[in-house]
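note to self: the first set is below, dont mix up w the second
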Amino acid sequence: MRVRAGGLSGRGRVRHGFLTGGMGMLLAGVVGAGLTGGQGFAAGVPLAPPAIYPADTWQGRTVAVIRVLDKLDAHVEVLSVPVGGTAHYKNLEIGVARCVARPPTLAPDAAAWLDLRDTHPDGVAFHGWMLAAEPALGVLESPLYDVRMIRCEGQNTAPTPMPLATPVVPVLPSATPQAAPGGAPAADGTHLLVPPPGMQPTPGTAQPAPATAPASTQAPSVVAPQAPLPPPVPFPSGDQNRAGSAEPKTGDTY
């Protein structure tokens, strides 16, 4: 039983491997056929750049949303004040003269011109712009209240930005350079085609400059002087000098 179970298990593994290998070969064949037929690569399509408003563009709105914090009891109140109106929170009067927000193509931000006045004796006041993204630029220096600009709501009003212009789709350069007639450079900056050796150039085509200057214009090479060789030493003849003879003789001692 153990051997039979092992055999079944082995056949199952072989069968599973055969199926897996067959699917892999099938997928490889499909992918290879698609690449061979030119369907595996998509042609480049030029896209127009996105239309974006300038950085100093604002859109007017009719309602300003303001958050007020009472520092004594930590109570937070969110007020929606219409432009040109006034709201009251305890002893604080909040007047809104303008409310502007960024258009949709820019980073979200809002600003409001606020007229704040604390009616307590010796209360502080604030008159100026408050920005939602940078609240430290306009702060009500009051020991009782903290006022923050949140956002602008309501309908669009002045100032209203101009409609976005339609971007121009760029033109991709041609893959094959074309030579301009009359010897002028091609439109994409490439050089004109040169005929192969042995053929007469077509009138109006430019000839490439030689890679090196002619031999007549090249500077002559300067060879460093060499020291003269010493004269040869004459070879001794006869028996005058046995030690210097070419062949040893019988009876010579070395």
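second set (the one i keep forgetting abt)
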Amino acid sequence: MLLRKFGTKRGICYSGFVGGFVNSEATTAALAGLSKRVDEMADPVLTGILLCNISMLIRNLVLALIVDTTGQTTLRMLPPQAVIILASVAIVLRYDKKFCPVDGGELKIESPFSLGQAFKFGFAFTVILIVGSFAYKVAGTAGIYVTA
């Protein structure tokens, strides 16, 4: 809907931001795949990924506040995430016209439910879970940090 309402390039930026609230990894993978297909989409895709990361960081802060209602975890997470958010916002605002021009060319939009992308993401996610679980059993919390 965002692509149709705002045009291809600006719609990609907005889609990245909204997608970050849902699943930032899948959104980033989908946008990266799009930039591989159409070279002129690299700049809007970059902005879409930055916006995706911004919304993901905001989502994580809100989730931390929901899980730990005392706010202690959120307060510990806030400083580094605020720096990343502010730096990303600065980049997006500085290059907004270049990266997300108002007009945009036509882009053949395929089904948003790409089975191939879903399997690739599912496989990668499964491998990460297995490695993380094994690392935790072997080395405890330190194993999780090494996996990260």
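remember for set 2: The mean pLDDT is 81.
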